[in-house]
Amino acid sequence: MITIITGAEVFAPAYAGINDVVIIGEHIALVENEVDIEKYLVLDIPVNIIPGEGRIMMPGIIDPHVHLIGGGGEGGYHTRTPETHIRQFVEAGITTAVGLIGTDKTSRSLEALYAKAKALTTEGITALMYTGNYQIPPPTITGTIERDIYLVDPVIGTAEIAISDHRSSQPTTGEIAKIAAETRVGGMTAGKAGVTHFHTGGGKAGLGQLKELIEEYDLPAYNIFPTHVNRTDGLIAEAAELTRFGAYVDMTAGPDIVRDVEKFKAADGDVGRLTLSSDGNGSLPVFDASGNLKKLEVASLQTLLHGVAELYESGVLSPEEVFSIVSKNTAEVLGLSDKGRIGENMHADLLLFDDGFNLDAVIAKGVVLKQYGKTVVKGTFD
Fold first, then answer.
1. Is 134 annotated as a binding-site member?
2. pTM score, two decimals?
């Protein structure tokens, strides 16, 4: 199958002008101002032409933090959140997702996470995963972090090791340094990112342990990747400092994302090392000062797409910067060299938006999953 998108305004994520994009199989074959369509039509191969005129094209969204098999449980058995569905990703413009396990390591297993990642990949998107969870020592599939990264294809790092949170194992800096070091070596030997993704709570320590990791241990900053860094204004300032050391940091999309990014920029944070995630299908617990659960909601994957729209419309970032924090930047920290950009030989993961910045089309691995605003892909049992 050959797919040709004509006349779209391409952000690759850098602005590339009005272009036609030719997709052959799972990859982008050509990005050109005016493609000779006739030479493809005479081939004995089906050609699908998608009008892109009046539409904005950007790379497919990469979400580095999704609870593929659900999360939660902080309020008892009935508060375990549900698994994700392929339609959720398509309707949020997410073409690549990285799954993880959070608080609950008893009823959520890495084996189940692996199976879900493989299922979603079969159904249409690219789904990867981290080994581990909140606790130390972290659970693994093969017995060690390094073996998981080396032997289990979807595993690209370790997550979400909890710090500065009453639900964590209260790890020492030395303990998390050992995890980050083993994760890094696993990534080196397997040709993967080897990134350690840290859950950051609202506790007293903030990001202090991660700053200590970078300053006092022989670990590259780019292997350290904290999330939820917009939980408090203090964390935003600390996260901005970490980016100046060379670390990538991740904000959780939500209603205050424009304000949070403004504060990050005001603290001299490097927007080129900022990413955005949904925390999709994870729990959003609210605790009182004594650590008692007050309420619990489920994070929506849609918050990520809404965050992109809000940042785009606000002008707090340039369009290139907005699109980069959910594509190029994320691909860089996760070691996904063939994703996050629109260019020849890159994975054909693309989004089209209409003139009202509504999601019009989703293409993942060269396959159209949403077109003319309608999701066309179905789950296995739909």
1. yes
2. 0.96
